[in-house]
Design goal:
2 domains; globular; single chain; binds zinc ion; nine-stranded mixed β-sheet; 323 residues; 9 strands; alpha/beta; TIM Barrel
Length: 323
């Protein structure tokens, strides 16, 4: 699936950062944290509904248990494929499913929507050696495509406990996608600073590390890491919420002109932006809007919109060979 550009051939669009919008995978505690900040803003503006009603509205948005709605939105927006991220919150929040159950469910989603999804599976490193075995077994059983880390749960991405996971990733050519920057208010922000990846990135030069939200928060640090560490990439997931005075199109326009387009991976962090107009509007603005990609060479658009993602994925996961 492709969306035409003003020049040359159409460029496929692959989304490197999505979640299944389901309370089976995203703990209600996480949703309540998010709602807390939304409620605080609405309260200040004098238009806040009861907090419980707001929670109900968000929970109602997280009932896409089989990703059917996501696939519909991808179809309507011209997004051919997407990465589903499966963070392991289970040591910090009450989660309805175990890692094994979440893995199986994501496998079923892939079977239900063939050729549409890659999956990066998360395991909290504090699960110890048993966690490494679980990760290796599930990746082997289901053919998942990467490791997802959530440092705000309370660990650094350079924690030695993660090194056995990185050995597995190095052996299987799997990328490591780690959340950076702020998140749910009950979690830890300090371990989510992008510089925490530095030691791991140096110790595992054969593993590609993708800084989740790296093109949105702490951009100065994330950008120099991507520029100077061969194996560090930037994700722009959540860009529509970028806290920037010129609006997100101006932010992305600037980001895409830093000489880093060989390291930037397009991602929306759907369903995060579902509340603000949906995928279609975002993709239209990115691909055809007057600011974001306007004037960039076809080759660089292709890098951002799909080629960089394909480069970090293991060869077996790529629909077409990339050089
Ligand atoms: Zn996300």
């Amino acid at each position: 699936m492709t969306v035409g550009t003003s020049e040359a051939a159409p460029v496929p669009i692959y989304d490197g950062h999505c979640h299944v919008a389901s309370t089976d995978f995203i703990p209600t505690e996480f949703i309540e944290d998010v709602v807390g900040n939304v409620h605080r803003r609405l309260e200040a503006e004098g238009v806040a509904p009861r907090r419980s009603r707001l929670v109900d509205a968000y929970v109602a948005q997280h009932q896409d248990h089989h990703a059917d709605q996501l696939v519909k939105e991808m179809d309507a927006s011209g997004v051919g494929r997407a990465v589903l991220l499966v963070p392991d919150f289970t040591l910090r929040m009450t989660a309805p499913l175990s890692i094994e159950e979440m893995a199986r469910r994501h496998h079923e989603i892939r079977l239900r929507h063939p050729g549409r999804f890659w999956v990066y599976l998360g395991v909290d490193p504090r699960r110890g050696p048993e966690g490494v075995d679980v990760f290796e077994r599930l990746v082997g059983t289901y053919g998942f495509d990467g490791l997802k880390l959530y440092p705000p749960c309370g660990y650094s991405p350079s924690d030695r406990a993660l090194y056995p996971y990185y050995e597995v990733c190095a052996a299987l050519s799997l990328p490591v996608f780690l959340h950076t920057g702020p998140t749910a208010g009950s979690l830890d922000f300090a371990p989510a600073h992008p510089l925490n990846v530095d030691q791991a990135a140096r110790d595992f030069p054969l593993v590609d590390f993708v800084l989740g939200h790296g093109g949105v928060t702490h951009v100065d640090v994330a950008a120099y890491l991507a520029a100077f560490r061969r194996n560090v990439y930037l994700d722009i997931g959540g860009f529509a919420g970028a806290a920037t005075p010129g609006g997100w199109p101006a932010h992305l326009r600037h980001l895409f002109r830093l000489g880093l387009n060989h390291k930037i991976i397009f991602g929306t962090d759907w369903p995060l932006n579902r509340m603000s107009g949906g995928l279609g509007r975002l993709i239209e603005e990115v691909v055809h809007g007057p600011q974001v990609l306007a004037g960039l060479p076809h080759r660089e658009r292709a890098l951002i919109l799909h080629r960089n993602l394909l480069r970090v994925l293991p060869a077996r996961s790529r629909p077409v060979p990339v050089s």
